[in-house]
Every structure is written in structure tokens, then in C-alpha cells.
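Thread: "does anyone have the structure for this chain?"

Original post by V.I.:
We have the sequence but no experimental structure in hand. Need at least a predicted one for the grant figures.
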Amino acid sequence: MTSQIKELAEAIACRGISVRTTNHAEISHDTAKLGRLWQKFYQNYAGQLPEGEDIYGIYHNYESDDLVGAFDVVASWEVMGKAEASSAPNPAGGLVAVNIPAGKYLVFSEEGHMPNTVMNAWESAWEYFNAPDCEHTRTFAVDFEHYIDGNLEYGQVDLYIGIK
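Reply from O.Q.:
Generated one for you, C-alpha cells below.
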């Protein structure tokens, strides 16, 4: 696992499908929503994207922090043009538009089989931010997973955590 600070110079406009959940809900198979979100995304949208399209898992609308409170997760892909992403959600299609804002992020990179690779990246981030000697403060504005080359089975994921 590696981590580094990256400055995102421009916002990334994305469109996808969304759920609202909590970390507590994700612990139990009966209440977890993220696996079903990604399964729906993979079945209904991933096959329609161009080969090698980058895929994003966007975490936003945090109610609180990573221990309590709900947040939204959007399984998405990048769209061209900010005007398109800032348009209202399309309830008929079930798609939402969300922008990943420009700013400073601490990036945790992992490579391997999904979804274990994603969980390993999140565990590294939580371990880092909960350490007593942690140098950075999370913003809890927007965090995101970037699936390199759109591979949701095996590959690299970069987890971007928004920092002050």
C-alpha cells in the first residue's frame, strides 16, 4: 500500500447510480447496500461504457464522520462537460450527477482482486487517520475510489480522501 498527497486541479464531472448508507449498515450482509449498488452498476451500466473507461465510487453528503452518520455513494463514470454533470438527477433513468471537486486529497493505492482491494485501501485510510500522530485532517466533503481502466474484478484502485 502506498499513499501520497495529490492536488486535483479541476473538478471531475460524473454520472451514475446512488445509495445512502452508513458504515454500521455495511457490516451486516442483511443491511449492506454497497455490494448491491456495484452489482447493479456492473449489470446495467459498465457494459455500455467504452473499453478501459475509468470508474469512480464517490462518497459524499456525509452526515458526520466515518464512525456515525449516513453518506451517499455513487457508482459512476466520468462525463464530459461540467454543464452535463451539474444538471438535475434523472429520476426516470435513476442516474444522478455529481462533481468530484478540485482540491487536496491523500491517495491510498492498492492492487489485487476486488472487492478485497477496495476494503484494504479503506482499512489503510482508517488506520492512518485514526493514528494519534496523523498529520492530516479529513474534510468529510467528498472522497472517491478511482478504478484504473474500469476493472471491477482485478486491478488497481486509488482511494482519494479529501484533506484540509
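V.I.: this helps a lot. The CA atoms of residues 129 and 136 lie 7 Å apart.
O.Q.: and The chain is about 20% helix and 40% strand.
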